[in-house]
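Input/output pair, single chain:
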Amino acid sequence: MLLPVILSGGSGSRLWPVSRRLHPKQFIAFNGDGLSMLQQTAKRVAGIEGAGAPLLICNAEHRFLAAEQLQEIGATPAAMLLEPVGRNTAPAAAMAALWALQQDPDAELLVLPSDHHIGDSAAFARVVTQARTHAAAGKLVTFGVTPRAPETGYGYIQRGQALGPDAWTVARFVEKPDLETAQQYVDADEYFWNSGIFLFRADKYLQELAQHRPGMHAACEKAFAAVTQDMDFARIPENEFAACPSESIDYAVMEHTRDAVVAAFPGAWSDAGSWTAMWDLAGKDADGNVTHGDVHALDSSNCYLHGEDRLIATVGIERLAVVDTPDAVLVAPLDRAQDVKRIASALASMQREEADLHKLVHRPWGSYETLVEGERFKVKRILVKPGARLSLQRHPHRAEHWVVVRGTAEVQRGEETFLLSEDESTYIPIGTQHHLTNPGKI
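Output:
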């Protein structure tokens, strides 16, 4: 069994303000097909010969968003493991391996992030299929991307002895280099970009983890033994998982094992991790600009210009990212795009809402958006999915007025239950128990 393991726990802080902690980049559609990065990844792995339904590992706070997006494309995961805290990729892969061995003692894991861009899914599927020979033989395979430029934002893998067509032993892993060193790697023609995608037998990975990181292995086993089922989700316990060291698969295992293999992927790949990467990936106009939304660029070139609900106008700028959302605007040189995460981190330390949430907030029952807020009032637009309802509530310090803009609402107000149609309204007094249901089909 080949089990795709989709890691969806990242925060995407370098793509702030579009990516937020509670709605990160893997759940956002950046291109014209309308699919989020998670949805693209799920479709990509479904096209690999012999692959089963994916195992999704995600942040517990993202569970409903992830489940909804998979449901939208008709993808049913084998399971959804919820991380209570982030502990990087090595513990996540260990939890996946422990789950897989319960299903199949010979399980192979294809571990990949949910938020990468891969231009040719068919070519990627062929490379994975070819690499399974090495995984079946007990090797731990990582996929190296043929570098197109001296990129300083990626780690590198130096290849060693050839093991056949497009596969080599790993000579060494290299951290993100400076520009001069990166150019030397590209010129040497024996280095790959480190994609962070892996293929190995579940039992082999756990053996290597136990050898090189015994404390992590023990913590993961303890956490997995205490996993509980919650509806469609499997919850990893917080206390046990929080005790696990936080390390990547590279640091914990791949840099130490004698069985590391790098398989070459020659196609287009990007971690889509910054506004510079997004500029690289997107189609550009005659001036080299990438535009999204209502944009008017005068004498501006090689910029990433993103607007959501109002006009963006620029004059005489070059190589800037201008990203406008309803509650925040980012302006940064594309050459400093890696530093955007410092803004997101600073906002989080100040407990600013802009670090976590958009004005449009998704909930299991639908979504809400704050339109205007004053000292003694707040106006929200609430969307409730067909058949869904808000929780039963009572507010000791505020009254509410509800107006139905579209569809039909079933309202419980105290002991009353009644229907409201379009352009009808009701009043909820302070302290009155109430909830709202959408009984319709829209």
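The first helix runs from residue 37 to 46. The longest strand covers residues 191-201.
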